[in-house]
Amino acid sequence: MRLTNTERDTIVSQAKQCFGPATRIMLFGSRTDDSRRGGDIDLLVQGQWEGREALQCKIRFLVEVKARLGDQRIDVVMAVPGDRRPIVEEATREGVAL
């Protein structure tokens, strides 16, 4: 996994603060492969939320993480239990829990 301890801890703490303590966070994509370089930070955030609340939480999360880690490219896929979208299934299958 190509995240520093500081990056990982910041992402997890901000996700729990913004989305709630039961939130599950997974890193997926190129940052899970130690042999690669660069790439954005792809995150799957799983929890319980609805419509507008989800968007507000996502924006607040990205603002807080970027304020602490700098302006990095971060993609956030939000999913609720039972979400069967292909990206969610792939991230769940190949991702690394933070």
List the helices and strands and how they pair.
Blueprint: H1 5-19, E1 24-28, E2 41-46, H2 51-69, E3 74-79, H3 86-94, E4 96-97
Parallel strand pairs: 2-3
Antiparallel strand pairs: 1-2, 1-4
Q: How would you characterize the overall build of this protein?
A:
This protein has helices at 5-19, 51-69, 86-94; strands spanning 24-28, 41-46, 74-79, 96-97. By secondary structure, it is α+β, with helices and mostly antiparallel strands. It has a single domain (5-97), classed as Beta Polymerase, domain 2 (2-Layer Sandwich), CATH 3.30.460. It has a four-stranded mixed sheet with strand order 3-2-1-4, with helices on both faces. Helix 1 (5-19) runs antiparallel to helix 2. The model has no long low-confidence stretch (mean pLDDT 91).
Which features characterize this protein?
98 residues; alpha+beta; Beta Polymerase, domain 2; 4-stranded mixed β-sheet; 44% helix
* SSE sequence, one letter per element: HEEHEHE
Distance between the termini: 10 Å
CATH architecture: 2-Layer Sandwich
Q: What is the CATH homologous superfamily assignment?
A: Beta Polymerase, domain 2
